[in-house]
Amino acid sequence: MSYSLIRFVLDAETGWVTLRGKLDFELMRRYTLTILARDGGVEETTGRLRVNVLDVNDNSPIFQKESYMGWLRENEQAAQQVVRIRATDEDSPPNNALIYSITSASLFPGYFSITMVEGHAVISVNSPLDYEAVPDGMIYLTVMAKDGGNPPLNSSVPVTIELFDENDNPPIFSKPSYIIKIPESIGAGATVLFVNATDKDASREFGQASLIYSLEGSSKFRLNARSGEITTTALLDREAKSEYILIVRAVDGGVGPLQKTGIATVNITLLDINDNAPIWRDEPYDVNVVEMSPIDNRRHLSPGGRPGQRGERYRGLQHQPSEPLLQHQQQHGKDPHQRHGAGQGEPQHQGHTAHENHHSVCHRPWKTTSAVLGQHHRVCKPAGPQ
Ligand SMILES: [Ca+2]
Ligand SMILES: [Ca+2]
Ligand SMILES: [Ca+2]
Ligand SMILES: [Ca+2]
User: Fold this and answer.
1) According to the model, what pLDDT value does residue 306 have?
2) Which of 9, 48, 77, 105 could form a disulfide with 109 if both were Cys (CB 3.0 to 4.6 A apart)?
3) Residue 269, class by beta-carbon neighbours within 10 Å (0-12 exposed, 13-18 middle, 19+ buried)?
4) Which residues form the Cadherin domain (predicted)?
């Protein structure tokens, strides 16, 4: 037996069998040597030498794969088996009896356990995991297999567990209610406001990147479905409508009943811009004033409301005896300085007969001047839109 001869040598004189090479229990567990003995003459006899090799723990456990991968959804309530692992050890019992353990976990180390199921090591997750607490949704474990030798040998393998996001967070607007004021002169297509919602789900599928905005409440405004920018669609007129209450929604990428929605209101008030020149309404206004009325006699002479009720100011012109009528002065209100300062400089209106030093700006209560019976006073009443 050539193989045996490599390893065993027989001393022809003493009969000692000596081991010459290394034995490996895993390659050859038993050797049978046939030994021939011959005397000085021609007699000879044979005998057998059987050599049993005993195992020593010279093999480390070997995993069947270089790495393992498992996956899991977040928030799973029941324990989940996520990975099956197997290692082998070429030694014989008890040197090949393997014990598995998780030696490290990048996150949630207490959440994982490892048990033997049908000769495999199975990693289970025992508690719900939060995808939003796991960077990139990946958890990295190290699993070690240790044999039963003395001393024991061990090996380790990386295990990656991928967590999948569930849509468990709704979009939430930065404010429950946006309250803004804009001038009514704002142009069509101008930006009014950016609304913004956040969604804590960490995946693109269900999180921030999935949000779609929408708006209802008025066709005068539109909302960019992705950017949250609210713009006007038309010119606005405060005198036609001075306040808009819009509802904005943000929906995430959840499917069907799992989709989640955030809602906020947008309250838009239009600020008045002086875009209406006063105009006379129903002129002339005829008022009878009793002769010899006290100078301070207060009369409300404007029809349809108290003078100055809506912030207009009136100016009375004192009647000169040589003139049949008081003349009215129409105020063009583009410039408040011009409106209020009309009586303080040079006359603003040609042909005006009243003396400037008799002018007075009438604040409430409206002060009339004394007048002559039967003469007509003309008073002004700016008539803006109602
Ligand atoms: Ca061995
Ligand atoms: Ca979560
Ligand atoms: Ca979400
Ligand atoms: Ca989630």
Assistant:
1) 44
2) 105
3) middle
4) 8-63, 64-173, 174-280
